[in-house]
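User: I've been trying to design a sequence by hand for this structure and keep getting stuck. Would you show me what you'd pick, starting by listing the structure so we're on the same page?

Assistant: Good idea, let's start from the same input. This is the structure you sent:
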């Protein structure tokens, strides 16, 4: 890496994610409970989400006090350096609450609004994913490449469901119509990990409606740097309406089919 700033940002993100992952893995209380709810009573926040975000923002602020923040659990600061950190301290909170292993820490750095560094730490899978803009994507130090192109009817695609009842009912109807057109469908529960699984060749594609910037900031960069294509509705970037990531041959037909099925609205 020739840009010393990006090297610094990557090192900081890796260490902050490692520390937060260790806190979440080793500090999980046996009687872990719900600290608050977000979009609905089943969209939960635990005390550990909040502790992990404070750890990450504290560590990054100590080393780069002029940077801005955008975090899922409320961290927000404009900053003056042109660098903003986009943080999901615990992606897959419900999995974590139930003791399932598919959860992660996601940290991305933006420079003047462009994502330049992404790190996803998945402690229970013993995996660390990272990418730097233009520098490729890596998992545990090994270069990642998405799968070779497959026809859509042979594609393994993952998705997720919203926590608002009316929204998830429509999402289920879309998935019901989509499944016969694919090899099969999966639902992991962590958008960051599923984007990394596209990068690592474990999925042919992934889509979801209703995601936020902190859900996808790091994973989107990792997927793209591994050769995947990412976006939203046709001709638009990924946003809250729709996020799609897939191998180059699967991306366009999947995106087109999702548009036809109305995956972008409730």
């Amino acid at each position: 890496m020739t840009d010393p700033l990006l090297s610094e940002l990557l090192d900081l993100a890796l260490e902050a994610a490692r520390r937060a992952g260790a806190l979440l893995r080793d500090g999980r209380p046996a009687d872990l409970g719900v600290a608050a709810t977000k979009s609905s009573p089943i969209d939960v926040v635990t005390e550990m989400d909040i502790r992990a975000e404070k750890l990450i923002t504290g560590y990054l602020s100590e080393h780069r006090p002029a940077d801005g923040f955008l975090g899922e659990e409320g961290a927000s600061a404009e900053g003056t350096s042109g660098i903003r950190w986009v943080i999901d301290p615990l992606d897959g909170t419900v999995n974590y609450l139930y003791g399932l292993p598919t959860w992660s820490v996601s940290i991305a750095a933006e420079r003047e609004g462009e994502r330049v560094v992404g790190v996803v730490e998945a402690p229970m899978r013993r995996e660390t994913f990272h990418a730097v803009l233009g520098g490729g994507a890596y998992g545990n130090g090994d270069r990642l490449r998405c799968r070779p192109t497959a026809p859509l009817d042979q594609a393994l695609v993952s998705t997720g469901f919203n926590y608002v009842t009316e929204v998830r009912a429509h999402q289920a109807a879309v998935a019901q119509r989509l499944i016969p057109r694919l090899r099969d469908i999966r639902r992991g529960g962590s958008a960051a990990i599923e984007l990394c699984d596209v990068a690592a060749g474990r999925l042919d594609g992934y889509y979801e409606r209703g995601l936020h910037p902190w859900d996808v900031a790091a994973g989107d960069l990792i997927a793209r740097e591994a050769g995947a294509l990412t976006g939203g509705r046709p001709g638009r970037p990924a946003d809250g309406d729709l996020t799609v990531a897939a191998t180059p041959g699967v991306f366009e037909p999947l995106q087109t089919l999702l548009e036809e099925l109305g995956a972008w609205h409730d």
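That's my pick for every position. To get oriented when you compare it with your attempt: The two ends are 43 Å apart (CA to CA). The chain has a mean pLDDT of 93.
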